[in-house]
Amino acid sequence: MPLDRRQITEAALDLLDEVGLGELSTRRLAARLGVSSPTLYWHVKDKAQLLDLLAEAVCEDAFEIDETRDWRGQLEQGLHQFRAILLKHRDAATLLRQRPPLGPNRLAHIESTARILKDAGFTNEDTAGIARLLTAHVLASVDEPPNAEAAKAVREKLEGYPAARELALTTLTADDLFVLGTEVILDGLAQRRK
């Protein structure tokens, strides 16, 4: 059966979820598809192009922004949707950090954010910086947390640092931190907009 880019991309996403970005290779992908590497290269010229296809596939879901909400509500909705998209696939945040946004799916996400910020009255310079800040916040929120052993080692080192030790004992989850960070950023943007 002849290969097409959609099949290749879907198989690559499955492989990404299974082995992670560090172990993803065109050789492994060709084996998964039951073809030789040269056959795969007829459709995807190299690993960089494969990663670009994967980044686009990860961002395939469009943001559904309720434009009846105010700018803050629209941004919050977009940030939550972007995070949900990233949580669907292993190492998605790392992948997006490594590959520039060149395809229509990723550019549409950027366009949505830029439109909301511009409509809210932010300058071009502020919009450019704020969009990067928001992206960095979401990407950081889906990074792998330290394992339990590493967290324990850090807590043991905090014996002489009582304020830091109290912080280390909090029970904030990654979801809690994302919500808190989003609120803090949006509060700051509201102040800057005044």
Describe this structure in words.
The protein is mainly alpha-helical and about 190 residues long. The chain has helices at about 5-20, 25-35, 35-40, 45-60, 70-85, 90-100, 105-120, 125-140, 150-155, 160-170, 175-194. Helix 1 (about 5-20) crosses helix 2, helix 1 crosses helix 4 and helix 5 (about 70-85) packs parallel to helix 8. The termini are far apart. It comes from Amycolatopsis iheyensis.
Name the descriptors.
about 190 residues, mainly alpha, about 70% helix
Low-confidence stretches: none
The count of DSSP E runs of length 2 or more, i.e. the number of strands, is 0
- Mean pLDDT equals 92
Gyration radius from CA atoms, angstroms:
20 Å
Count of helical regions: 11
| SS-derived structural category | mainly alpha
* Spatial shape: flat
Terminal Cα span: 60 Å
Assembly state of the chains shown? single chain
Percentage of residues in helical conformation:
55-70%
**Biggest sheet overview:** none
Strand composition percent = under 5%
What is the chain-wise order of helices and strands? Answer: HHHHHHHHHHH
Protein name: TetR/AcrR family transcriptional regulator C-terminal domain-containing protein
Keywords: DNA-binding, Repressor, Transcription, Transcription regulation
DNA-binding region: 25-44
Domain HTH tetR-type: 2-62
